[in-house]
Design a protein that fits this description.
Blueprint lengths: L4 H14 L4 H4 L16 E5 L8 H10 L4 E4 L10 H13 L3 E10 L2 H14 L3 E6 L4 H11 L2 E5 L11 H8 L6 E6 H7 L3 H7 L4 E5 L23 H11 L4 E4 L9 H15 L3
Parallel strand pairs: 1-2, 1-8, 2-3, 3-4, 4-5, 5-6, 6-7
Helix pairs in contact: 1-11, 4-5, 5-6, 9-10
Length: about 280
């Protein structure tokens, strides 16, 4: 029976998931994603939202089992009200296990106090960026905080139903004239759900894409939902990775796993296997 390359890598991803606690999943991740040509520049990571029903200790354990190193921390695992000392303590726990909290989010910023606190929280964690959703009227304050702290802000598009930033294009229109450290966290799932071409967005906004959410979705419309297994939905992953290679994307690209919230690890591991298999094509 003949297999397409897409089917082959889907099977490869399932094999990675099936390894469980085997040697592959206990080993540290490579510095960059595996590529035969060496063209892959980004680091695969995990959005801790994927493990939202579990403790920070489980986030550490499961991130390591999935062979990942970089974590985008959601406030399920440390409240935004946490003190600087509590933030530093959690960051140290991750670092002792060979992991790095490189960003936090998604952080909503509905008033000036929340903007100020988001940057305090990120600084205390040692993050280089925030994945955020600031209200439009506070963007000037956000820009000011970016300049003060040198912490980038990556504004997240949320697709259908989001009146603030439904598309990457809507983020771009707000930030294009701002400090170059104010940019976009491109969620390809939400882009596809609203009818925005993520390939075009990657190329068009390449200088402002500071973060990136890997997910597959069941359909290219409002009803689309994150799929339990990567490669079973509608997103063209070879084209996505090819576009990231073409723009030289060299930041972290985390998986944000939204389904099977009570048992997410097998699905996360399949996503890792699938995406890394795709990276071998370039």
């Amino acid at each position: 029976m003949k297999l397409s390359r897409r089917s082959f890598f889907t099977a490869a991803g399932l094999s990675a998931a099936a390894l469980g606690s085997g040697s592959l999943t206990n080993s540290p991740s490579l510095a960059k994603e595996p590529s035969e040509s060496g063209k892959i520049l980004f680091d695969l990571g995990i959005a801790s939202y994927s493990f939202r029903k579990f403790s920070p200790e489980k986030v550490i354990e499961w991130t390591k089992r999935a062979g990942l190193k970089y974590v985008s921390l959601k406030d399920f695992h440390l409240p935004l009200t946490a003190s600087d000392a509590e933030c530093a303590d959690l960051a140290q726990k991750f670092e002792k296990e060979g992991l790095k909290i490189y960003s936090c989010g998604v952080v909503y910023m509905k008033n000036e106090e929340e903007v100020e606190n988001a940057f305090r929280y990120a600084k205390a964690l040692g993050c280089s960026s925030i994945i955020g959703v600031p209200e439009h009227k506070y963007l000037s304050l956000v820009e000011k905080k970016v300049k003060e702290t040198d912490i980038r802000i990556a504004i997240h598009n949320h697709g259908p139903g989001d009146k603030r930033y439904p598309t990457a294009a809507s983020v771009w229109e707000k930030v294009r004239s701002m400090d170059p450290r104010v940019g976009i966290a491109l969620d390809i799932g939400h882009s596809v759900r609203i009818g925005e071409d993520p390939i075009n967005a990657i190329h068009q906004y390449k200088d402002r894409i500071f973060d990136f959410h890997f997910k597959d979705v069941s359909s290219a419309d409002k009803a689309g939902r994150c799929t339990a297994m990567c490669g079973t939905g509608v997103i063209d992953f070879p084209a996505i990775i090819k576009a990231l290679v073409e723009i030289g994307y060299n930041r972290v690209a985390p998986i944000e796993y939204e389904t099977l919230e009570n048992d997410p690890l097998p699905g996360v591991m399949q996503y890792v296997g699938f995406i890394r298999g795709m990276c071998r094509m370039f």
